[in-house]
Each structure stands twice: as C-alpha cells, then as structure tokens.
Write a structure and sequence with these properties.
Layout: E1 2-4, E2 13-15, H1 18-35, E3 51-52, E4 56-59, E5 70-73, E6 75-77, E7 89-91, H2 100-114, E8 119-121, H3 132-145
Antiparallel strand pairs: 1-7, 1-8, 2-6, 3-4, 4-5
C-alpha cells in the first residue's frame, strides 16, 4: 500500500490540515477497535498499543503477524535523501497478514478525509480497496466519529 503527495505542490514539506488529521486519527482508532484484529505499536511488540494522536497514526500487526509499520504523520518534511524531489512517498507492506484489512481501511479513511491532497495505491491494484471487510470497518468507524 502506498501514500503519495500528488505532484504539482512543489513545497518540500507536506503538511496535512490539523482538524482533518484529528478526524483521520479518530477514524483509524475506531477501525482498530471494530476490527477484532490484534494491533500493536509500530514495532509489532506484544502487549503494546497503537498510536493515534493529533499528529500521527502508527501501528502494526502483533509479533509474527507484524510486517511493516503503518505510519502517517500530519507534518512531513522531505527526508534529506529526497531533497529536491517534489513527490512525497510512504508505504506499508503487509504481506497480506491479518492487519492488512486494518491498513486498507485506514487508507480508505485517509483518502476520504483528505481527498485529492493524497493519493493511495496498492501492488494489489485498485481491487485492494474494494475489500468488503475493510469498507465495512471504515463505514462503521466513520459513523461513530461523525455521529
């Protein structure tokens, strides 16, 4: 799964709206709560908690069901090795482990909240975002947050 800042904004910093990010973080927190999938901190360490704040969302699967960290920050400075590149880029490979559905649902939330400000994609193609379970988790979380 990939997150890109669309081309055309040549700013080296990619900052997302604070109020929208707060909503995105809350939606992700409820996606995790509704999922029944064990979710841990970004390192996938057992008995740790994911992070949902006004400035970042960070989680992974747990132990053997962890793979790569899902990590989205509100304020993103371009890393030194990408200076001069107008494209911001982030990714999370899940190896289709159980937390994949949570990552997909949170990416759907990211796209829904920020619209054209972000682009999401997947090695699995657009059909990765047609996942019924991920869409149900997203819909349920949005109904709670926006109630």
């Amino acid at each position: 799964m990939y997150i890109n800042k669309p081309k055309g904004n040549e700013d080296q910093n990619f900052n997302l709206d604070p109020e929208k990010f707060k909503e995105f973080s809350e939606i992700c927190k409820h996606i995790v709560a509704e999922s029944n999938v064990p979710i841990c901190n970004g390192n996938g360490v057992k008995d740790t908690k994911p992070v949902f704040t006004d400035s970042k969302v960070c989680f992974n699967g747990c132990e053997q069901d962890a793979h790569e960290t899902f990590y989205v920050e509100r304020n993103n400075a371009q890393p030194e090795w990408r200076k001069g590149d107008p494209q911001h880029f982030s990714f999370c490979k899940t190896a289709r482990k159980p937390y994949d559905v949570v990552v997909v649902a949170c990416l759907i939330a990211l796209s829904s909240v920020f619209g054209s400000r972000v682009e999401i994609s997947s090695d699995g193609g657009e059909e990765a975002f047609d996942d019924d379970q991920a869409n149900k988790l997203f819909t349920k979380a949005v109904s709670i947050v926006r109630a």
